[in-house]
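Hi L.,

You mentioned the student needs an example of a multi-chain input paired with its predicted structure. This one should do, with 260 residues in total across all chains.
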Amino acid sequence: MDFEGIIEKASNLLMDSNFTIGLTGAGISAESGIPTFRGKNGLWSKFKVEELATPEAFNRNPKLVWKWYKWRMEIIFNARPNAGHYALVELERLGILKCIVTQNVDGLHHLAGNKCVIELHGNIRRGRCIKCNYKVIFNEPPENIPPKCPKCFNLLRPDVVWFGEAIPKNELERAFNLFSKADLALVIGTSGIVQPAGYLPYIVKENGGLIIEINVEKSAITSIADIFIKDKASIALSKIVKYIKDKLTSKLYDASENEL
Ligand code: APR
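Structure written out for the whole complex:
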C-alpha cells in the first residue's frame, strides 16, 4: 500500500473509532528542536542516565543534575509546538482524540492547546521541594542552581520522574483507565522501551482494539501496530487531519445537497 493509502486507512480508522487515546514520546517534539533520548544523537548516547536522571545522582551531586536540567530547560523554553502537536489539537477538537498520555516533560501539548493531557513523567517547567513538596513553576530556567524552596529554603528538584522512581499514582491510574476504555491507540514518536508507558498500547490490543503508530523507525510497539506510518510526526499527522477534514466537508456538502 502506498503512503497516501496508509494515510487514508489510518484516517478512516480514526474517524470510525469511538475512543481514541494518544501516547506520545520524545519523537513528536524532535521537530521542535528538542533532542530525543535514544537512537542516533539521542541524549543517552551523550550523557549517562545514572549520573543525571536518578534520585541517587541528585543526592550525590544536585548541582550537576541541575546544570543538565537547566541546559534542557534552555532548549525547551525556546521551543514551540510543531505541526504534529497542532494536528493533535485538531483531532481533539474534532472529537476524535479523547486524551493524550505523554512521556514528554516539555509541556508542548498544553502549549499547543490540547485540553486533556496526562504527563506521565512530570513537567520540566515545574520544581518540587525535596523536603516540604512545595511546587514552583519556572517561567525561565533558574538563575542560581541548585534552586531553593521559597517556603523552607531546602533544595528544589525538577518535578519529573527519574529512573527508579514511581509514576505519580493519579496520572498512572488515569492513563490505565483511558487505555482500558480505548478502541484505538495513536502511538507517536516513542521507542516504547520505557515502562509502564510502553505497556499501555498492549492494553488496547488485548481488548481487541487497534493501534496506529507514527515513527521514523520501528519501535517496541511496531510489532503490534495495525498500521505503521514510517514518517515524521508533523508530516503524517498533518496529512491525516487534512484527509479527515476534507472527508467531513464532503459529507456535509453531500448532506446539504440531498436536503435541497
Ligand atoms: N517523528 C516521529 N518519530 C520520531 C521523530 C519524528 N520527527 N524523531 C524521532 N522519532 C522517534 C524515534 O525513532 C524514537 O523511536 O521517536 C522515538 C524517541 O524515542 P526515545 O528517544 O526513546 O524517547 P521516548 O520513547 O519518549 O523515551 C521514553 O525514556 O529517557 C526516558 O523519561 C524519558 O520520557 C522518556 C522515556
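You could point out the following to them. The chain has two domains: 1-33+81-121+167-260, 35-78+125-160. The longest strand covers residues 122-129.

Best wishes,
N.
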